[in-house]
Amino acid sequence: MASLENAFVGAVSSGFANLAVYPLDLAKTVIQTQLKQGDLYPSSDVQADVSTKESTGSSKPKKHGIQQIKPKPEPPTATKESLEQRYKHALDVIVKVYRNEGFGGLYHGLSASLLGTFIQSFSYFFWYTLIRRHYFRVKKVKGEAARFSTIEELLLSMLAAATSQLFTNPINIVSTKQQTRRGLEGDNSFKAIAKEVYDEDGITGFWKSLKVSLVLTINPSITYASAEKLKDILYHVEWNAKDLNDSSLQLKPGQNFLIGVLSKIISTCLTHPLIVAKASLQRSSSKFTSFQEVLTYLYRHEGAHALWKGLLPQLTKGVIVQGLLFMFKGELAKHIKKLLFLLQVYRKGRTIKAN
Questions:
Q1: Which residue intervals make up region (Disordered) (predicted)?
Q2: Kind of pairing, strands 68-71 and 40-43?
Q3: Do 323 and 261 meet the contact criterion of CB atoms below 8 Å apart?
Q4: What gap in Å lies between CA 45 and CA 71, rounded to an integer?
């Protein structure tokens, strides 16, 4: 299929897949962004200086190169509980949100999330198709082997994902803030939160955490590179230069689903600490400024296991979405191909009749 057709099929499939598991997405975002010590802010004070200040009465902090993270003064009890309600696991989040906010609460921030998903998937598959086709032609001209190696698959996917992130990061920022503003009063609409982001950080606020998002392009890269290799290993998919980006056309729905699940498990387990860091940077009222700061804080205050917190809901949501995405995309691509063939036959028939 052409770049635009492939992008549209990928975006629609991704939208349906994410809609099916959105409550799980909400749960994993809340789990990943809740912290043990309440709301936080970055500070250049060293925690050991606290006792010195108290004894000497000096308020002058000692400067250090690395920012430390310290708890803010205790907020009012009601506000603190609503902002940082503790959840034990993903199911606990879903149950409590349903009890407190009803069925609609489970789809909090859905519009922004679906918009972001559609644009991100459309952009990714468009660039992914375009870049792969162009690189394939270059290899063909040079007389090199037509099939892509694992390294080539990774690099091409990373380039496509990085390009799409430049366009979709602003929507992801708003969507994550909507999901993590539990219990806060005020307008929580897409427009209101977008204005809030602009007022707080200016236009650059919409690309906050872009650095970690670009690093995370390794996630879809591993997913799609793994998928291509798994297709070869499990189902011996034939190489077809015509269907360069549609090898899923050769597989059944269940086979495409399995490929999506296995490839997503591999990529998620390898990149989960960065996923946690990205969610923490984008959360509502986040005071972290870099993903290194998030990872350092979590490691020091909650232990190494905190870098993989929310892994189960992330895996559950991720593998189902990726499995459904691969399955929907494969079936939609088949139907679109049939539809285009029928249209072509119909046009030829009309031309013959006209002559």
A1: 46-82
A2: antiparallel
A3: yes
A4: 12
pTM over 0.70: no
Measured on CA atoms in the order 209, 269, 117, 30, is the torsion positive or negative?
negative
16 pLDDT higher than 60: yes
Residue pLDDT, tens place only, 288-327:
777 788 888 888 888 888 888 878 877 888 888 899 999 9
In CATH terms, the fold of domain 3-39+75-354 is Mitochondrial carrier fold (1.50.40)
Only one residue has tokens 């921030």, namely 109
Domain coordinates in residue numbering, the chain: 3-39+75-354
Contact 261, 322 (CB under 8 A): yes
Query: What per-residue string of b and e applies to 109-145 under the rule 16 or more CB within 10 Å gives b?
Result: bbebbbbbbbbbbbbbbbbbbbbbbebbeeeeeeeee
The radius of gyration computed from the CA coordinates of the chain, to the nearest angstrom, equals: 24
Which residue bears the tokens 């990774």?
A: 154
Please give the backbone phi and psi of residue 89, each rounded to the nearest 5 degrees, phi first: -160, 180
